[in-house]
TrEMBL record:
<feature type="transmembrane region" description="Helical">
    <location>
        <begin position="6"/>
        <end position="30"/>
    </location>
</feature>
<keyword id="KW-0732">Signal</keyword>
<feature type="domain" description="PBP">
    <location>
        <begin position="231"/>
        <end position="480"/>
    </location>
</feature>
<dbReference type="Pfam" id="PF12849">
    <property type="entry name" value="PBP_like_2"/>
</dbReference>
<protein>
    <submittedName>
        <fullName>Substrate-binding domain-containing protein</fullName>
    </submittedName>
</protein>
<feature type="transmembrane region" description="Helical">
    <location>
        <begin position="202"/>
        <end position="223"/>
    </location>
</feature>
<keyword id="KW-0812">Transmembrane</keyword>
<keyword id="KW-1133">Transmembrane helix</keyword>
<dbReference type="InterPro" id="IPR050811">
    <property type="entry name" value="Phosphate_ABC_transporter"/>
</dbReference>
<dbReference type="InterPro" id="IPR024370">
    <property type="entry name" value="PBP_domain"/>
</dbReference>
<keyword id="KW-0472">Membrane</keyword>
Length: 508
């Protein structure tokens, strides 16, 4: 029973029972329902005699053939209402004859002296209850019962009307019997409703049941609280490599830790090549060290095992004031070859071109050289980007940034600067990202082959991550589990989601 998903079963029960109760109440039995409620049944004889002595002996019913004195009177107010979930039409009343009456209110041992309709939920019901509708009262001598015949009144959901009757007790003294509504509704039922002054019993039972389900889930959670989810491992995992992938990897690690608290992470994002060098030097086979890279340069590291993660979109970035909506591949090659030295040559402002590059060995640089420049750049002297930030430069300049964060900061703080980085990081830095050959940086455009600057994110381990190790667990999370959602949220496309996952093995 250790792997039995009891929490899921409890959750399903907690959802199924309210839904079933709703369907039963409002679809099965409550779809068409006519309710009635006796809102008042009060004797009036004693009160009238005390205020007006002898008045009842002088009153007579309106009928000329009756000589009965008015005594033992009571007033009854009956509410008729559509308490179901659908409309009740005239054809929905069940009757054995073709008469106009659809309902009958019986008053055992009491005669109906007079009656009136006192309240309508809307004025349109008036013509259904006028003198021509068939509403009447009568006396059934064989049963000693007064009856009010009510017409077949069409009622929308929630509609109601009230009937006030003056009754006189007939026969033996004692407590008056309760009035009773008789009739039938096709596909439904008649029922006595109650005033909604308290919580219905069914609602109390349903709430109590849900409380029990929640309590059971809490108990199960406490009992299993110390057990890590299946697939979790304990220990420490160090992740090194591409600085362009730092945000997505750290985000994935944080979410993994929310489920698997016993795995600790350490990070050193100093560039793809440095990460691969560190992994090779450590020669660690215990699955506690992995490297992340954004270009398949692992061919120079034969002892490393490579696993593809996602397709990443890269972009050219420029200073916020450098408004160049689009650049072509040919223009970028001229810029990085030194043939364009001032932005005015491309229709921009009169500013010298400042090339901000990543150091050789960077995966992002390798992607840019391969996809845009068509090969490696010639060796030229480089200046540290920290030395030129914020300066007004008199001529074209080229500097080198060790990590993505330094490149983005230099481009943001240096007028006329241009560089390249992972697209998600560039947008978060607030830099301009001009289109490439007229196509804006976009994941779907890259997958469709219309946008050229893209690469593959890879994870490397020394000789393969052994089963049950921290590296194997985290890599499985990235490729097969919720980590794919993290990759997607950062603008990349997980390899597992591609129509042709083999494309993630491409190097060009």
């Amino acid at each position: 029973m250790d792997g039995f998903p009891i929490e899921i079963v409890l959750a399903l029960i907690g959802v199924a029972v309210p839904i079933s109760a709703f369907l039963w109440e409002f679809v099965v039995v409550g779809r068409r329902r006519l309710g009635y409620r006796v809102q008042m049944d009060t004797p009036v004889t004693g009160e009238i005699e005390s205020v007006f002595p002898g008045v009842l002996t002088r009153l007579r019913p309106e009928s000329p053939d009756s000589a009965t004195d008015l005594k033992d009177l009571s007033v009854v107010l009956v509410r008729i209402e559509n308490s179901g979930a659908t409309t009740i039409d005239t054809s929905d009343y069940q009757t054995l004859d073709n008469g106009r009456a659809g309902l009958h209110v019986h008053f055992p041992q009491r005669r109906v002296i007079g009656m009136a309709v006192t309240e309508l939920s809307h004025p349109g019901l008036a013509e259904c209850l006028d003198a021509r509708s068939g509403i009447a009262h009568r006396w059934i001598a064989s049963a000693s019962c007064g009856v009010i015949d009510l017409p077949k009144v069409p009622l929308n959901r929630g509609d109601h009307y009230k009937v006030l009757a003056i009754l006189q007790r007939h026969g033996r003294a004692g407590a008056d019997a309760e009035p009773e509504l008789r009739g039938g509704i096709k596909g439904g039922r008649l029922l006595e409703t109650r005033s909604r002054t308290g919580a219905p019993r069914a609602m109390v039972l349903l709430v109590g049941f849900l409380v029990l389900v929640i309590a059971a889930q809490l108990v199960v959670g406490v009992v299993r609280g110390d057990r890590p989810p299946r697939g979790c491992v304990a220990g420490e995992l160090t992740v090194v490599g591409s600085s362009a992938l730092r945000p997505v990897i750290q985000d994935a690690a944080q979410r993994y830790r929310a489920e698997c608290r016993d795995l600790r992470f350490a990070f050193a994002f100093e560039g793809t090549e440095r990460g691969l060098d560190r992994l090779t030097r450590a020669a660690s086979t215990d699955g506690t060290l992995i490297a992340i890279g954004d270009n398949p340069i692992g061919a120079n590291y034969p002892k490393l095992d490579r696993r593809s993660l996602a397709v990443a979109v890269f972009t050219v970035v420029t200073h916020p004031e450098l408004d160049l909506p689009s650049l072509t591949t040919a223009q970028l090659r001229d810029i990085y070859a030194g043939r364009v030295t001032d932005w005015s040559e491309l229709g921009g402002p009169p500013l010298p071109v400042v090339l901000v590059e990543r150091a050789p060995g960077s995966g992002t640089r390798a992607v840019f050289e391969q996809r845009v420049l068509g090969g490696s750049q010639p060796a030229v002297p480089h200046t540290s980007c920290l030395a030129i930030q914020g300066r007004e430069l008199a001529g074209p300049t080229r500097c080198t940034a060790e990590v993505t964060g330094d490149l983005l900061q230099t481009v943001r703080n240096t007028r006329g600067a241009i560089g390249y980085s992972e697209f998600g990081e560039a947008t978060r830095a607030g830099l301009r990202t001009p289109a490439l050959n007229g196509v804006a940086p976009d994941r779907q455009a890259a997958l469709a082959g219309r946008y050229e600057l893209w690469g593959i994110e890879f994870a490397y381990s020394y000789g393969g991550a052994p089963p049950g190790s921290p590296a194997a667990a985290f890599l499985r999370y990235l490729t097969d589990e919720a980590g794919s959602d993290v990759l997607r949220a950062h603008g990349t496309e997980p390899c597992r989601d591609l129509p042709n996952p083999a494309r993630c093995g491409e190097s060009g």
